[in-house]
Amino acid sequence: MGERLDKTLIDDRIDDPTGDEAAVPSERFSGDTNRFESRGTVARGGMGSIIDVYDHRMERQVAMKVLHQDLVSRQGELETFVREAQITGQLDHPNIVPVHDMGHEGAPPWFSMKLVQGKSLAEVFRRLGAGKLPGFEIEKFIKVMIKVCDAVAFAHSRGVLHLDLKPHNIMVGSHGQVYVMDWGIAVRCARGEDGHLRPVEITKGLRGTLAYMAPEQARRGLAGVDERSDVYGLGAILYEFLTGRPPFEPRGVLEDVVRVVENVVLDPLESPTLRQPPPGLAAIAVRALARDPAERYPDVTTMQGELEALMRGGGWFRERHFGAGSVIVQEGEPGESAYILTRGRCDVFKRSGERSVHLRRIGPGDVFGETAILTSGRRTASVVAVDEVTVLVVTREALERELDTRGWLGPLVRALAERFVEADEERARLRTPTAPTDEER
Question: Of 11, 12, 150, 164, which is the active-site residue?
Answer without folding.
Answer: 164
